[in-house]
């Protein structure tokens, strides 16, 4: 039980170190908007970081203990611009509403057997 607690505490500390390293740098001259750190399956000391900036998403290897961190060594992919219909959808009043008969066009809710027979 004590070993499990030591493992969890060490993992939490190393995760905090990895997130702090990710947050302290700029990526291709942009500040991070959102970021996350995930433990490497083989090593507790190496973490994978995912950083979102305004125009790109970067993945980078983050050493949580001791080694020097280079944010430019990661792979960055540019995010596409918002599409016209996505912008239009945000301005409509009924966004996110689903018709009551969306699942079964010719059936009634709660009577799936009857609706399945009509298909």
State the gist of this model:
The chain is α+β, with helices and mostly antiparallel strands and 119 residues long. The chain has helices at residues 2-23, 84-91, 112-118, and strands at 34-39, 46-52, 56-63, 75-78. It is built from 3 helices and 4 strands; from the N terminus they run αββββαα.
Can you walk through the features of this model?
The chain is of the alpha+beta class and 119 residues long. It has one domain. It has three helices and four strands. It has helices at 2-23, 84-91, 112-118, and strands spanning 34-39, 46-52, 56-63, 75-78. Strands 1-2-3-4 form a four-stranded antiparallel sheet, with helices on one face. The termini are far apart.
Question: Largest sheet, if any?
Answer: 4 strands, antiparallel
Number of helices: 3
N-C termini distance: 56 Å
Strand content: 15-25%
- Radius of gyration (Å): 23 Å
Structural class: alpha+beta
Secondary-structure element order, N to C? HEEEEHH
Shape, principal axes of CA atoms? elongated
What is the total tally of β strands? 4
Q: How much helix is in the residues?
A: 25-40%
* Order of strands across the main sheet: 1-2-3-4
Average pLDDT number: 78
Secondary-structure blueprint:
Layout: H1 2-23, E1 34-39, E2 46-52, E3 56-63, E4 75-78, H2 84-91, H3 112-118
Pick out its properties.
31% helix, 119 residues, four-stranded antiparallel β-sheet, 4 strands, alpha+beta
